Amino acid sequence: MGSPEQDPDDSELEPEAPVELPLDGNLDLHLFHPRDVKDVVTEYLWACRQKGVLDVRIIHGKGSGALRRTVQVLLPKLPEVESFRSASESDGGWGATWVRLKPLDYDSQK
């Protein structure tokens, strides 16, 4: 068994390295530290809008509800958010929030 310095898998793990997320309209916040949630949600929604993904499901889990509250307090402050609602039971219930983003050409339509 090699030392941690010699393990090729360990050399690729950097705790502060950016995480590349697929822009598929599903953001699972279980992968992130709670202190990073606001930045992750803001950046993910911005990137989705740039790619034309306007319906996004944010999975925050049921737990104590703290992440849900953080997300649902943040969303009205983001200008690119058109609307949001709790998911139905079939797609996450109160453990997820659906977000509808404004299309990129929204600003030019004003």
Number of strands: 4
**Poorly predicted tracts of residues:** 1-11
Strand content: 15-25%
The main β sheet shows up as: 4 strands, mixed
Biggest sheet strand order reads: 1-2-4-3
The H-and-E topology, N to C, reads as HEHEHEEH
Helix content: 25-40%
What is the terminal separation in angstroms? 64 Å
Summed over residues and divided by their number, the pLDDT gives a mean of 84
C-alpha geometry:
globular
Class by helix and strand content? Answer: alpha+beta
How many DSSP helices? 4
| Rg calculated over all Cα atoms | 17 Å
Which features does this protein show?
110 residues, 4 strands, 18% strand, disordered N terminus
Would you write up a description of this structure?
This protein is an alpha+beta fold. The protein has helices at residues 8-11, 37-51, 66-74, 106-109, and strands spanning 26-28, 55-59, 81-86, 96-101. It has four helices and four strands; from the N terminus they run αβαβαββα. A four-stranded mixed sheet has the order 1-2-4-3, covered by helices on one side.
Summarize the topology:
Layout: H1 8-11, E1 26-28, H2 37-51, E2 55-59, H3 66-74, E3 81-86, E4 96-101, H4 106-109
Parallel strand pairs: 1-2
Antiparallel strand pairs: 2-4, 3-4
Can you describe this structure in just a few lines?
With 110 residues, the chain is α+β, with helices and mostly antiparallel strands. The protein has four helices and four strands, in the order αβαβαββα.
